[in-house]
Automatic annotation (TrEMBL):
It is found in: Cell projection, Cilium. One of its GO terms (molecular function) is intraciliary transport particle B binding. GO terms for cellular component: axonemal microtubule; intraciliary transport particle B. Required for polyglutamylation of axonemal tubulin. Plays a role in anterograde intraflagellar transport (IFT), the process by which cilia precursors are transported from the base of the cilium to the site of their incorporation at the tip. Residues 431-461 form a coiled coil. Its main location: other. Gene3D superfamilies: Tetratricopeptide repeat domain. GO terms for biological process: intraciliary transport. Belongs to the TTC30/dfy-1/fleer family. It holds the Pfam family TPR_16. This is Tetratricopeptide repeat protein 30.
Amino acid sequence: MSFAPIKDGEFTSTIYGMPQPAIHSFQIKDGKYNEVIRILQYEVQRAPTNRAALSLLGYCYYYCQDFINAVDAYSQLAQLFPNFPEYKVYHAQSLYNAFMLPEALQVVSTIEEEHLLGDVVKLESAIKYREEDMNNARILVEQYPPDDPDTEMNLACLDYKEGDYTKALERFNNATSVMGYQPELAYAIALCHYRKKEYQQALKFINDIEALTDMPPRAEEELDAVTLHNQALIGIDTNPADGFAKLQFLLSQNPFPPETFANLLLLYCKYEYQYDYLDALISLQTSPDEAYAKFDAMANEQMNELRSLTKRVQEIRQGNDENTARKAVEAFDETLELYLPVLMSQAKIYWDKGDYARVERIFRKSVEFCSEHDTWKLNVAHTLFMQEQKFKEAAGFYEPIVSKNFVNSTFTPIFQLLDVSAIILANLCVCYIMTNQNEEAEELMRKVEREEDDAREVDETRKCFHVCIINLGNFEFGISRVIKAMEPQERKLGTDTWYYAKRCLLATIGELNSPSMKVHGKMKHRKTRK
């Protein structure tokens, strides 16, 4: 496609929408940057030193977030027109947004014009912040003019980065009172509340932000990199595949937020697909012993930290300082959440080898800190269960997890047992049966059955698979329960249930071929009829 050349001196008026016949519809004021870029590229090819064309081209690249090309445009402008130092600022801003931080600092250091020093200080502080140089970033932010509203907001960001969430929250609130409501500030306030474990307040601000997003969804390529990155993290729990796709899309872009790669690696670890932990996981592929040693070193370091925090909590409580004690308990909880993945990774090495006794010994080392944590209790229960000689002990760990979900309500159906993993319920039933507590096993199954029936009364289309999965393993008793649990078949029989049920049926058939197992004739007839 060809374009009529624009006369010198008419670039700004033409591009911004004055009635010129050749490109009347292409207007920056309407946000049609991509269409304008096509025209300007033609004009720059025709006249490479045309300041107006280059300037508008850099502007359009910048607002399209094509920072690499913006860098090129403003670099040419800064060299061609040294009497316009503003181009150096724009050049540095483009480099910053392209994550070319050393180059941005180099350009900033060449700007000496007094009227631009305010912009220079702000840009340099942003670069230092992105480089994790908090001390110098704070020094630069404190050089802002006293009445600059960005001062309070940037100091809040620094406080947050340094872990002082209370001070950061105070500053973000102050910035909101000066600058008015802004979604970015609301999100920052929500994040502070979340870090302080004030979840209700955090949820309130998030709901306010979500109320502003009632608009048609945009394609990934239309979103800025930071928004797309945050959307991926927010939705990762509900839709992991979509979250991974967004993060992988970002990695294909240039530039992308530097946090993207680290977050993607951490999420891959979480979903079986921080830095010392990754190193140990990588070692696990080639040398399990080396990986175990690395995990063990990390675990010992965190156990020492947990002991120190436990002692500190006890000392603070003796002084009746509840606020400080609460913060110390929060620090303990956060350290415990870091310790548990390391502990579980250690245990998994021997779990995969089937050495459940060794797994049990690993868990026993951590009992003083983890005995009240549900994740720890659940994995200990699984470990005891798999040893096939400690069903009573395993039941002792499963029972508290299940009992939390016993809810008796006359007025409203609450299906909390269905929120418990079917494998937990199934294993507990096996524990009961193997310790001659058949009545307890049957009572638990009846409760699950009742909840499934109640759930179907509320939603006829709902498929409930708990009873089907629970009734596995004990051949004669289990097969009869499996068959009963599949009724009515149009509601119960599905891909998931058949996946488990067919294993029971095939295992039973296999065992029937051996002289070690006998099944009553009535049971055989029932299976044949079914």
